[in-house]
Design a protein that fits this description.
Order of helices and strands: HHHHEEHHHHEEHHHHEEHH
Number of strands: 6
Mean pLDDT: 87
Structural class: mainly alpha
Number of helices: 14
Protein name: Cytochrome ubiquinol oxidase subunit I
Shape: globular
Pfam family, one: Cyt_bd_oxida_I
Subcellular location: Cell inner membrane; Cell membrane
Membrane topology: Multi-pass membrane protein
GO cellular component, one term: plasma membrane
Helix content: 55-70%
Length: about 475
């Protein structure tokens, strides 16, 4: 089946496959690290054991998700050198330092304190352990900061110069590169998405256990916290997404045209196409369900504002409209579903039925995985909408690939598919198994301090001494 694709297409499929797998875990661990920080802070402030138990419950899940995110991220880096060597060569002077900053600041911070966070809960003071948890949470955010800065620069490249050998090199200011025009919007939109993704998972787990035992204290607490997050943050995400869309219209108009399905320009106000089947051959959306002039109202805040269409873009610069059109609608549709779940939870809370409405709990379970689907759909919209460029308007994807034969790329792609489904399938299965266990009091046994371990001259513990007869003493 893979014989029908050329090397560039196979390399794109491989990158899309591996980054989709990878994106699942950071989108969960970024939010979960912050959730653990909040749980430990609440425990230190209130002393309530329910927060400590939930911390221990989710800490085990975080450890596995974090590990799988690190492993899958390493694979991503190698692909820049194997399948995309031309891109690495030309963009390396800019991409390389930014990736190095991510390792030096975020990864070192996470790695330095992760061991204390995971294994020091009964071995160091509570203040130091909380500091370690905060360091890991901050590290996950810093990691997202640098990665999204790299990606945003590829979307809206500024602050560069082109050297004599064709490489993109930094200009006078690194700040212009780091804080490129789309970066603030993309960072805020992605981090909020990670927090919502985590809240939906936590809410689904809480709802699952409430259906089995609505009096479970841990399940009630995690479900309530998750629903507060969905109710308060989902509308903020909608507003941030709208601002991000306006920024995209300014800097990448072809992407917005594909998202909206606007093959033709609309000089007197563009309709919002809710659904339809994009037909790129005929330059139209078949069976379109439209709301007149609503697209102009959303994008220009004027129902009669003109909007350009893909007829103003050369055919060889158009992104794949069908993929972008539908991935955008999946993202937006699920976003409003999450917003609806938050509103439903507010109604239940007002009626004092938060833990007594099975319909709310079942809806939370159904929408539990929706955060992952939403962030992947958003990534597809962003990356496919940038095509046919790797670096927007500067370097085409077809010019970025390594000079490899198709069978070589196909072989590595097949290997990745087999290994990923085997290894990460087991990891996800184990995470689900842990989630299936009911949050209990005392998630981990408390360590008992018997003093320092002696390597020589071992002295029996007092309890053992007391059990021995007088004649048994040395």
């Amino acid at each position: 089946m893979l014989d029908a694709f050329d090397a560039v297409t196979l390399a794109r499929i491989q990158f899309a496959f591996t980054v989709s797998f990878h994106f699942i875990f950071p989108s969960f661990s970024i939010g979960l690290a912050s959730y653990l920080m909040v749980l430990e802070a609440l425990f230190l402030k209130t002393g309530r054991s329910v927060y400590e138990n939930l911390y221990r419950y989710w800490l085990k899940i975080f450890a596995i998700a974090f590990a799988m995110g690190v492993v899958s991220g390493i694979v991503m880096s190698y692909q820049f050198g194997t399948n995309w060597s031309v891109f690495s060569d030309r963009a390396g002077p800019i991409i390389g330092p930014l990736m190095a900053y991510e390792v030096l600041t975020a990864f070192f911070l996470e790695a330095g304190f992760l061991g204390v966070m995971l294994f020091g809960i009964n071995k160091v003071g509570r203040g130091l352990h909380f500091a370690a948890t905060c360091a890991v949470a901050v590290g996950t955010f810093i990691s997202a900061f640098w990665i999204l800065s790299v990606n945003s620069w590829m979307q809206t490249p500024v602050g560069y110069e082109i050297a004599a050998n064709g490489q993109f090199v930094p200009g006078p200011s690194w700040l212009a590169i780091i804080f490129n025009p789309s970066f603030p919007y993309r960072l805020l939109h992605t981090v909020i998405a990670a927090y919502l993704t985590t809240s939906l998972v936590v809410g689904a787990v809480g709802a699952w256990h409430l259906l089995r035992d609505r009096n479970n204290r841990g399940a009630r607490t995690m479900f309530s916290m998750a629903m507060w997050m969905a109710a308060l943050v989902a509308p903020v995400q909608i507003l941030v997404g709208d601002a991000h869309g306006l920024n995209t219209l300014e800097h990448q108009p072809a992407k917005v045209m594909a998202m909206e399905g606007h093959y033709q320009s609309h000089p007197d106000g563009a309709p919002l196409i809710l659904f339809g089947i994009p037909n790129s051959a005929e330059k139209r959306v078949d069976y379109a369900v439209e709301v007149p002039k609503l697209s102009s109202l959303i994008l220009k805040h004027d129902p009669n504002a003109p909007l350009a269409g893909l007829d103003t873009i050369p055919d060889d610069e158009e992104p794949p409209v069908g993929i972008v059109f539908w991935s955008f609608r999946i993202m937006v549709g699920l976003g409003f579903a999450i917003f609806g779940l938050g509103l439903f939870s507010l109604v239940a809370r007002a009626c004092r039925k938060m833990y007594d409405w099975p319909l709310l709990h079942r809806l939370a379970i159904v929408l539990g995985p929706s955060g992952f689907v939403t962030v992947i759909a958003g990534w597809v919209t962003t990356e496919v909408g940038r095509q046919p460029y790797t670096i927007y308007r500067l370097l085409r994807t077809s010019e970025s690939a390594s000079p490899l034969a198709a069978p070589a790329v196909a072989g590595s792609l097949i290997a990745f598919i087999i290994v990923y489904f085997a290894v990460f399938g087991v990891g996800v299965w184990y995470i689900l198994k842990l989630m299936g266990k009911t949050p209990q009091r005392g998630e981990s046994p408390q360590a008992v301090d018997h003093g320092p371990i002696r390597s020589a001259g071992i002295t029996p513990a007092p309890a053992v001494e007391a059990d021995r007869g007088e004649g048994e003493r040395p």
